[in-house]
Amino acid sequence: MKEYRCDVCQWVYDEAAGLPDQGIAPGTKWEDLPADFVCPLCGVGKDQFSEVE
Within 10 A of 6 (CB to CB), how many other CB atoms are there? Predict the structure, then answer.
């Protein structure tokens, strides 16, 4: 499982953890997130995230 960091506020989406409180089950891959997914902290779209190395 991978992690993706918001380029604006540095919040990290962890595929293993998901976001259960937002209806995103643990294990949900980045590419399977809805196209309209936004950072829960700053509101930017998926295009403003980078994979954590």
Answer: 21
User: What are phi and psi for residue 32, nearest 5 degrees?
Assistant: -95, -5
Q: How far apart are CA 10 and CA 23, in angstroms?
A: 22
Counting residues of the chain whose pLDDT is more than 90, the rounded percentage is 100
Residues in the chain: 53
Displacement of CA 19 from its chain's centroid (Å): 8
pLDDT one-digit tens code per residue, 13-35: 999 999 999 999 999 999 999 99
Q: Which of 49, 46, 53 is nearest to 9 (CA)?
A: 49
